Amino acid sequence: MKLTTRGRYAVMAMADLALFKDKGPTSLTDISLRQNISLAYLEQIFIKLKNKNLVRSVRGAKGGYVLQNSPDEIKISNIISAVDEEIKMLNCKKESKKGCNNKSTKCITHNLWDQLDQHINNFFEKVKLEDLVRKNQTLNK
Amino acid sequence: MKLTTRGRYAVMAMADLALFKDKGPTSLTDISLRQNISLAYLEQIFIKLKNKNLVRSVRGAKGGYVLQNSPDEIKISNIISAVDEEIKMLNCKKESKKGCNNKSTKCITHNLWDQLDQHINNFFEKVKLEDLVRKNQTLNK
DNA sequence: TTCAATTCCTACTGTTTTAGTCTGAATTAA
DNA sequence: TTAATTCAGACTAAAACAGTAGGAATTGAA
Ligand code: SF4
Ligand code: SF4
User: Fold this and answer.
1) How much is the pTM?
2) CB B115 to CB A139 under 8 A?
C-alpha cells in the first residue's frame, strides 16, 4: 500500500471540487484557502489528476478545474492511484535482490500480504467521492 | 497505516518460529538462513518482539528464541505493531502545524481515513500466526 | 576451563521517499 | 494590458527506511 499526504490532499481537493461543482470551475487558490494546502503543491497534484482524466482544466483568469465525472462515479481508489502510484503491498524486494526471487516457492507470508492488498483496494473501490460529500454519513457498507 | 520490511520480516520470522516450535529454541542464525534476512537486522527486530512479550529468549550457545504463546493466540496485528509502531492512518499533520487543528470541525475526509484504519486493523486482528502456518489455506474469513 | 555460539545493546550510515518550494512560462477573462 | 490562473519541471531539506558495525554478556559443550 501507499498512502501519503499527496493522496490525502488529492481526495480532499476532489471532495472540495465536488462540493462546489455547480459554481463553475474551481481555482486551486480557492481550494488552497479552504483546505489549507499549499497552492504550489496542489498544482503538482492536479497535473496528475488531469493526466488521469479525473478533472478537466480551464485556463486563464476565472479558470480552474472541473470534475470529469459526477461524484458518484469517481472511486477513491482512482484518485489515490492517480497521485500516489502503486497501491501494492507486495513490493517486498523490488524483484532483483534477495527475497522471493531465487526461491521458486513463495514465502509463507505471501498470501497474507496479497490478501491485505485486496482488502484495502476493495475498500477504496467501494467508496465514491459522493459518499464523502454526503457528510456525516457512515461509510460502512 | 505503516507497514515496512521490518514488519514483514517480523511476521516471517514469527512464522518460522511457529514452524519449528517443537524443536527447542530457534536461533536467529537459522531464521536468517531460512528466510534470507540479515542476522543483524533480525536481532534488532527480535529485541522489540521480546520487549512486547511475543517471544522469550534463551541466551548462550544452543540458545535462541521461543514463542511466548501458541500460534493460534498470536495476532498478526500484535507482531506488526511491536516492530513498526503506529498502525494509524490519521497522522495527517502531526498535531501542531496546519491541518485539522485550528478548524474546530473535522475535515470532510476524516471519516474516510478513520474507517480505513479500522478496516486494516480488523484484518490484522482476525489473522493469527496459526493461519499462516497452516499453509495453502485461504485467509478469508 | 576454554571457546564458540548465541543474545543483547546502541550507535552509525547510505539511500530513498516525502513533502513540499521555486521559477518561470503560457493562457485568457476582464 | 493586466491580473488570475493553469502548466511544467527542476530543485531541496528533512525524515524515514533498511540495514551495518562493533562490541559486551551469557552459557552449553569440548
Ligand atoms: S514470496 Fe514472499 S518475498 Fe516473494 S513476493 Fe511473495 S511475500 Fe514477497
Ligand atoms: S480532520 Fe482532517 S486533517 Fe484533521 S485528523 Fe481528521 S482527516 Fe486529518
Assistant:
1) 0.86
2) yes
Tell me which amino acid residue B49 is.
L
Distance from CA of A54 to the nearest CA of B (A): 18
- Which chain A residues have a beta carbon less than 8 Å from that of B112? 11, 76, 127, 132, 139
Q: Which of A77, A4, A6 is nearest to A41 (CA)?
A: A6
- Distance CA(B102)–CA(B87), nearest Å, equals 25
CB B48 within 8 A of CB B86: no
pLDDT tens-digit readout, B53-62: 999 999 999 9
Residue in A121, A14, A21, A119 with CA at minimum distance from that of residue A74: A14
Distance to chain B for A108, nearest Cα, Å: 7
Residue closest by Cα to atom 4 of ligand 2: B100
* Domains defined for chain B, CATH in brackets: 5-139 (1.10.10.10)
pLDDT of residue A51: 94
